[in-house]
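hiii so my PI (J.) wants the whole complex modelled not just the main chain, which honestly fair. so below is everything: two entries, each one labled with what it is. i double checked the lines twice but i was tired so who knows lol
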Amino acid sequence: MKNKNLKQSLFQSQWLMLLLITILISVFTAIANPRFLAINNIMNIFEQIAVSGLVAAGATILIISGNFDISVGAIIGLACCTNALLINQGVNGFVASVAAVAVCMVCGLLNGALAILFKAPSFIITLATTSVYKGIGLFATKGVIQTVYGKFDTLAFTKIGGVIPLSFVISLLGFVVVFIILNYTQIGRRIYAIGSNEKSAFLSGVRITENKLLFFMLNGFFVGIASVLLLSRVGSALPSSGAGLEMTAIGAVVIGGAPISGGQGSAVGTFFGVLLLGLISNVLNILGVNPYLQEIASGVIIILSLGISALRFKVLSR
Amino acid sequence: MEQILELKEINKSFAGIQVLHNVNLTLHAGETVCLVGENGAGKSTLIKILSGAEKPDSGSITLFGRTWSSLHPSQAMELGVATIYQDVDLVDTLSVADNIFQGAEIRKNGIFIDRKKQEEKAGEILHALNMAIRPDVLVETLSPGQKQNLQIAKALHKKAKILIMDEPTASLGEDETKALMELIDRLKHDGIGIIYISHYMDEIFRVGDRVNVLKDGYSVSERQIGEVTQESLIREMVGRDASNYYRKGNFSTGDQALEIRGYARGNLVKNVSFTVSHGEVLGLGGLVGAGRTELVRMLFGADPKESGQMFLNGKEITPVDPKDAIKKGICFVSEDRKGEALFLDRSVKENISVAKNEGSFFLNLAKEKELVDHSIEQLSIKVFSREHDAGKLSGGNQQKVVIARWLAMDGEIYIFDEPSKGVDVGAREEIYRLMEELVKRKKIVIMVSSTMPELISMSDRIAVMKDGALSTVIPADEAQEDELLKWYMGIK
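here's the output for the full assembly
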């Protein structure tokens, strides 16, 4: 009986499984190449996952609520361009960043509003707005790369205690905020409720429209912070700067145990999803795997984790 | 006659809740044993154990003299146990003959299926059973009764000695039911043992040799059919007299505090006005589609309306949406529990506290736990823990969770739409007690019900709706079922 409980609790939390896998991979890699365990390398992983982490943190909220925003890659591109254009106009970096975050929140809000107005799945709406936002970015920059080398790299290169990258700490804070929202606030309960059953939520006194808009805006906020970190690290902006981040984020949320249909999921799960994806790409690098094959690997990881989820549900429903 | 099956002291629990307690069942060759009990009494679980779909926690299964602790589905089939389900076991797009020989096809040269020979043999089998089914037609063209016959034929072809029939007449017409009864007689004559599950008393008395009553997972009795009557069976199933429907006391203050004035929307609801007093249950009766659900949803602010105002103690409180309604003390238990009341993949805790949590930004988790534990205890909701998924509960417990959500809100006005739909008799009574508790505390209750005894016994007054309009309001103690029905149909 006690054994069964242990098995149950292990299967109950996806993040425990992910932690286990993370440790396993780390141990094997460290044996194959001790360089993996160097502080530098580990901090490198953290730095790598800072941006995608924030995007995934926001996506956790949306996906649990049963929504999607696949335009976040384009939104990040637009925000990076806005930010860079403003800085190059001589605007203070902080003010420009606030503007970039605002752009992201407005774009998110627009996505939500359109999805609600046309009663269309947000997946489809944001597929359409992706090209709108990309187009605006291209129009504003005339397709020319906007460089801010040396003007906006404090965020990316600051290390706390000379070791821990500030960007990772910011990303971690983002997860803490999402964790608190999901577990300790009324908004969190609304996110789960709307994702689980919108009609029930409505009849329980949850205002659906307002809350969905709020979720999209919250997602926009996290995406905005991510765009600021990204610009600081890369030093230049293109409308395509954030391309692909939406899929990494959705992948991480799904790996973290949230079903695509919504209603379930956790901040901790997503965090380990992001960490696992970052770890894998680092490990493949360290082991000298062909970069093209690395792409395949990240896809396979998502498929594997879906398999683990399915297995979990099977064990739990026994 | 030879005993072919004995289930002995079977125990089974799911997620810590025991659904079978030392249940016994025996069956002889050529005998029909009827298994009866309320929804959730454990009949299906017992059948699943016999057919190998579930493993018992303890107990033994003796088949034809050999004893097993549990069975595997394919093993049960080999031993001659066949369950006749509705539809599910047949392939619609294959012919009758193909279905009978499925998995054991007759082959030509070891590779190709010999259709002709299969159809010939299938014809013989069906003919021997007196079934008027052509072996070469597709299964999808058969009637529900024919499909059931085909399943029986298929099971017998596979040398089944024990047939389990779970509500076999649920989708059958009168003639088909009669034909099935005759078939069962023939099967009995051929020495087949049958376990027959049904809610229909006349069928039980028609085909049964013995009756086995299950209640709350316990074997209550096992008697010869001659020893029981309808009344005695119902008494054993529910543990009390059937005539003794719940009797609610009278707590109405007669103050007519709630006034519903001129609610209307198109053809669905036409200018409905009425009043309800504190401590009163106003029952809304009528045929399905009379506009009752539409009306109460409008009252709760869930659906748009063209006109209508609501006054409590002379003050207007017409809600604009459910959130507003809840703030004004109106609570609504929907008729569609799974579709629009529960969050099936969320915990009992979240399901209960969802409306309550709409008050403050940060949750008070300790207080929430206290509230939920109190609710679970107060309503005796059968759960393993408060983190249990609501979707895994039985219908009655799910309904209690929904009611607990609204009791926690301590509203003024409670609207119940079909409060006992899909709820077993035991839980139904508890729900009635909770409703009575509300009116004792001088709450205002509006109840939509399509069950006449419920409407008459639980209401103080009954408002009848027909085609969207309120046709009459009558005191419940003067209401007769036949009179009400005349109002429903507009004969009066």
